[in-house]
Task: structure prediction
Amino acid sequence: MSTESEINGFLYQYDEPVFNKAIEIRDLLMANLPNITEQIDLPAKMIAYCYGQKYEDLICVIIPSKKGIKLGFNRGVDLPDPDKLLEGTGKISRYVQIRTHERINSDALKNLLSNALIMYHQKKNPKK
Result:
């Protein structure tokens, strides 16, 4: 688990617009993913949000870069995405390009988070 000062220290290496969006996304994740664990993955240059130490416990990641910021979703290929926010061609994950403040606060993004959380709980507690 990373501290707020570690998170900020990691994000300070990016320009102000990327830093500010990352903080906004972080606030959104903390508000919508109860008791989530936040961890910096320095080699991968991202912040992971998970409910355990295994890859299957990963919900999403903040991926800052010099060009902008993405919010990646583990098992994004399986997420319902009626607003067509998800991009990418990976076998498992998908991401959302975060270009605006409005995108961060959109109902569409909040719905993706909600669906990712529901999907996680369904996989962890399958009905018998």
Summary: The longest strand covers residues 58-64. The chain has four helices and five strands. The mean pLDDT is 93.
